[in-house]
Design brief:
The protein is an alpha+beta fold. It has twelve helices and 23 strands. Helix 4 crosses helix 5.
């Protein structure tokens, strides 16, 4: 299609489709990336795990499989219950794993030795008291594994409920992108172009409507030109030739008391196509009056006789109107000749002078194009503003991640009062003297992380590092809270 207003509207519509589709796809991909561990366990789990290997799990934050099934034939009840609404709803079992105990939360009345649930990092039991299992197995919080199993969380259902909307949104995004690309490659297949094909060549019809748009009267959401009548909405474009209009009337929707709830207009052409919409009473009456002045041969208003003729013999109705049209215009057209699509007359060649040649559509159509363009500009501005705000609030993170670590001397380090206010927090500190502490972090039954202290002026810096990794300098992240009790 050529550079007509309809072509520009189609391009703008395609751009909006592609941008909306890409936004949905990127949003889905981001959500999947952030929740990939949950989705993997919910959709692929539960994973069978040996009870004897359960104590080999170190840190659940890095453990890939946390929705598991275990066989625990020796699990016994602890006598501890969880109460909801003044009634016990859950109870705790405990199983011996090596020299430690594995806590399992199950619904009341659970039977069998198989347990399927989610491994949770914190066991909400045994704050500081000693309890007895089967009156012979004393244990305290220190002898429990640092995680427990919650059988009341079936992840499969949650995973399907979470994944189904994501799949639907992603499919919608792909469809929008493909639809935008397909309509860009084949603009004749766009719904706007198809709406014009009924009246002839879409380019010629669009050019004719564009030429009439400047002096067209816009009543409600309908534009009435000299030879054309059209209504544009974002999702549709309806066009009628005024010469083909045969019937127009107002329809009122009434309530039980006879009060008008909604006022509608209905316009019919010689092909039987109907254009219907709602507006105020004054606007509908003005539209019908305008149409009557432009096409005085058309039937204006409705009655039982008119409706009966239209429903019983539409061809005779149209022939009668076309006969009246021929009488008023001094010609005697047939229905076939009158209703056949006739190409729009091409406007005279535009002047070649840049000062006189219009650069874009004027009138109502040009206004719609400019509004769509302004909406695209607004979306682009909002995107860049959101990006700028995000970068502003995360500037320290990217600054440290991309340029760090930064060397920091002991004097500067000792002068820090609030780490959260520091621009540089990924640093390298020289360690002239290192003192080991008795605190260690265990994973899979062995100490892997240890804490050392480095003297910094009159203070000490606690360093969380890999065991047996003594260095002359340490690089890492400064944190405000010491992760040690």
């Amino acid at each position: 299609m050529h550079n007509t207003w309809i072509a520009r509207k189609i391009r703008n519509d395609n751009i909006i489709h592609v941008l909306a589709g890409l936004t949905l796809i990127i949003g889905c991909m981001t959500t999947v990336s952030l929740t990939r561990k949950f989705l993997y366990n919910a959709l692929a789990g539960p994973f069978p795990v040996n009870l004897g290997d359960i104590d080999q799990i170190g840190n659940l934050d890095v453990e890939r499989n946390y929705y598991v099934t275990i066989q625990a034939p020796d699990a016994v009840r602890t006598g501890y219950f969880v109460t909801r609404r003044n009634e016990p709803s859950d109870e705790y079992f405990v199983a011996l794993v090596g020299k430690q105990y594995f806590l399992i939360c199950v619904p009341i009345g659970h039977e069998g030795t198989e347990f399927t649930g989610v491994l949770e990092a914190e066991a909400p039991l045994f704050a500081d008291a000693k309890l007895t299992v089967s009156n012979s197995l004393p244990f305290t919080r220190g002898k429990l594994l640092p995680f427990a199993m919650n059988v009341r969380k079936p992840l499969n259902r949650q995973g399907y409920m979470f994944a189904a909307p994501l799949v639907a949104i992603c499919v919608a995004g792909v469809w929008l992108v493909l639809a935008g690309i397909r309509r860009t490659l084949d603009p004749q297949g766009h719904r706007y172009a198809r709406a014009l094909e009924r009246h002839g060549n879409p380019d010629e019809v669009a050019t004719a409507i564009e030429a009439e748009s400047t002096g067209a009267a816009r009543i409600a959401d309908v534009c009435v030109g000299k030879h054309w009548l059209w209504r544009y909405r974002y999702t549709e474009l309806r066009v009628m030739r005024l010469d083909d209009l045969v019937w127009a009337y107002r329809y009122d929707s009434l309530d039980k008391s006879g009060k008008t709830l909604q006022c509608c207009y209905r316009l019919f052409d010689s092909d039987g196509e109907m254009l219907q919409g709602t507006a105020g009473v004054v606007d509908v009456d003005s539209l019908l009056e305008k149409v009557h002045r432009r096409v005085p041969w058309a039937v204006i208003g409705s009655s039982l006789e008119v409706e009966s003729l239209w429903l019983a013999n539409r061809t005779a109705f149209i022939d009668r109107v076309l006969l009246q049209r021929g009488d008023k215009l001094g010609e005697a057209p047939t229905k076939d000749a009158a209703s056949a699509p006739s190409p729009a007359r091409r406007p005279e060649k535009a002047p070649e002078s840049p000062a006189q040649a219009p650069q874009e559509a004027n009138g109502w159509i040009g206004k719609e194009i400019r509004e769509t363009r302004a909406a695209l500009y607004f979306l682009g501005i909002c995107f860049w503003i959101a990006l700028a705000i995000t970068l502003f609030f995360t500037r320290n993170f990217f600054y440290n991640r991309l340029l760090g670590p930064f060397p920091m001397d002991h004097q500067t380090l000792a002068a820090i009062e609030d780490v959260n206010q520091e621009a540089t927090y990924i640093v390298t500190v020289r360690a002239d003297k290192v003192t080991k502490t008795p605190w260690e972090y265990w994973q899979q039954g062995q100490p892997t992380i240890e804490y050392v202290v480095v003297p910094v002026g009159a203070k000490f810096l606690l360093v969380h590092c890999v065991k047996e990794d003594a260095k002359a300098e340490y690089s890492g992240i400064l944190v405000a809270e010491v992760p040690l009790s």
